[in-house]
Amino acid sequence: MQRKTLIRLLSALVVLVCFASCGDKPTTTREERKEEVKEYVQHHLLDSHDFSLFSKTDDKGEVHHYGFPLPVILWDGGLKVFSSSKFHHGETVAEVDGNYYKLEHAKIYKTDAAGTMNYDDHHHATNDKPIDISITKGVFMMLITCVLMFFLFSGLAKSYAKNGGIAKGAGRFFEPIILYVRDDIARPNIGEKDYKRFMPYLLTVFFFIWFLNIFGLTPLGVNVTGNIAVTTALAVIVFFITTFSGKKDYWKHIFDPLGDGMPWYGKIFIYIILVPIEVLGMFIKPFALLIRLYANMTAGHVVLGSLIGLIYIFQTWLGGTLSFGLAFAISLIEVLVALLQAYIFTMLAALYFGFAVEEHDHEHDHETEVAH
Amino acid sequence: MEKLIQEFSLGLFFWQAVLFIGLLLLLRRFAWKPILNAVNEREEGIRNALASAEDAKKEMQNLQADNEKLIKEARAEREAMLKDAREIKAKMIEDAKGEAKAEADKMIAQAQSAIEAERKSAIADLKNQVASLSVEIAEKVVKSELSDKDKQLGLVEEMLGQATLN
Predict the structure, then answer these.
(1) CB-closest option in A133, A166, A199 to B15
(2) What is the value of pTM for the model shown?
(3) ipTM of this predicted structure
(4) What is the pLDDT of residues B91-116, one digit of tens each?
(5) Which positions in chain B touch A150 (Cβ < 8 Å)?
(6) Looking at CA atoms only, how far is residue A151 from chain B in angstroms?
(7) Which residues contact A134 (CB under 8 A, 6 or more apart)?
């Protein structure tokens, strides 16, 4: 019965897309539309200083943006706070306390009253950039996620006390996931002795990434986890936790991987190569984390954006329907990817923590020593 | 790579780090610790409940075993008692029989001895009477015999004839 309803709903959507895609007489060429879609997808991948829900071009060719502005916070010889509506979506120069700022490709540049921009050979703007700690769209979504997570999980925590140790409400859905993170991610990778210390981090990062990934799939279209700065921050935290919780064996493995099995004059030649590699490994591990999450989420957004864009490029019933079907299928896969990437990030972070706190069986070392 | 560096936004990095660490600390304090503690407590509770159920089961089994043992013992005791009683009964009957027999034998023996004594005295009496009767008869016979001289001689003759000299 449910399946029937779903199929009907899907068919209705397909028909709708079909009509929508061939209803309008195309006024632009296919090439133009392609460029437009490309720009739109690229724009979507970037962070922005205002929260635009959608924009539309009216008959006179004016672009109307629907959404709300967000606060811009700049440090430019003093703290400057103003609304992003002053930029008019990058169309005008914002004037604050006698300084002029221009928004270009989601970056704020210092400029003059006319909005002059200087570019180098690679078409990169060379204007001064003030330190920008604005509440951008991404930060805004992060804040929402933080508030949501806080209320969700503190509510779950309270429901235990109220309900005699049994979860109630929405928390019931999340409790098995929390237990999964504990029993299948933290325990096997970090070990029974140390896993408790890392649980708060692992749980927070898992749900944070998952929720933001899912938010990225909503029509709000906020690509937070697909932003390199966000994944870098997450990876840097992993790096610090790993480094600061590293025990003797962890450091020994990096700076003296061969142990006492070889005389020092033999080790010197190997260590000239080996130690830099091991030290590099400390950084490569979190780096891989940040690139993996960034690339996966960005790729997902690009594919989805392009498939949806195809509907407007083709503007025929066949192309539109096909693109819709594909976009729908990819959306379903992306829902899975959203969870999978959160899982992989948490899993690997746990694995690195496990390396850091691992304590080798010293008796085993002695055995190999005797064998030598 | 260059594009990535171009895209990198320090503000977003800053906010992400600050918000994430803030969220981590807040959640650790208000969510994860209470949740994990509650879950641990619950698991501990379940484990304890299971263990105590197991214990109770074992105790029940022990009790049952004890009961069975008691019943067995009681049954064995009853059997033993019954056996004893039977033995006692048999012995009593046996004893009584023996005693009765002995008594009877004794009585019979007494009766027999009494009868014997009676018989003996009766025989003695009879003998005496027979003797006196014989004497009387003999006296009478002798009297009548000896009243005729021929007869006396004839008798002597006869007796002599019988008494052969050998």
Answers:
(1) A133
(2) 0.74
(3) 0.79
(4) 999 999 899 889 988 999 999 899 98
(5) 23, 26-27, 30-31
(6) 9
(7) A49, A70, A71, A72, A73, A74, A84, A108, B11
